[in-house]
Amino acid sequence: MRTSICFHIKCNGNAMNLRFSQYRLSKESSYGAALTIVGSGIWFLVLLNILLQKNAIAGIFGLGIDGVFLWVFFRFMAALFRARMFGNSIALTKEQFPELYDIFVDASQQLGLKKTPEAFIYNSHGVMNAVAVMFARGRYVLLTSAIVEIEEHEQLRFIIGHELAHHALGHLGFFKHVLRLPGCLVPFLYSAYSRAREFSCDAVGAALLEDKIHALTALQMLACGARRLNSGLNPRAFAAQERHVPRIAGFCREIMMTHPRTTRRVERLMTVFSFD
Asked: How many domains are there within the chain?
């Protein structure tokens, strides 16, 4: 039977361990600031427009009602998600898959998360992927069964660290997302910010490893998708494929994507951690 792992982080206001903050891509902060400025400006104009209306009080009241409705809606959706996880999943603990649990707890502590996350195993239908999610006040990391089946624990540690880094770096905050939402109207700005976040989390995940080569092979593994070929992966040869990507076509394709090309992700880690 195929399974995947969901890690639920029950902590708020956690700051990333300072020794890992150096791995945040500089462009991420610039793109994030641009989203915040544009988003805040548009929200300000919306509020100003309401205040300038003759029935400003009614407009503000209506906006407040909409806000309460959305808050209740998202809280209910979060409760439904928790009901599904608790009702149909297996809790990952010291008694249940302790090896995986220890990897996750250790990575969480290294990244400065104050409380030990809750973890769940659920059926994933064999998809090879991983994702970080924040739902209301609940934080989650989802790992699919194909990822968990990777034979190298250090590769799994990198993937877990990458997803935890999204939480530790504050990428998924609800109010920040709402504030920046109008900024997504600027063409390609959000996708550029998202790609920068992936570069940052790659570096943080790799920083958790003693031997960084496992981070390179883990990324290549996501591109390859064949576990039986894991032992034969050559990250340098894979990164060299970037030279064959048509420049203009590659640029046009990537500016619309939320994730960088995997070859570029491997290249950047080789630069950050000074691979010869």
From this structure: 1
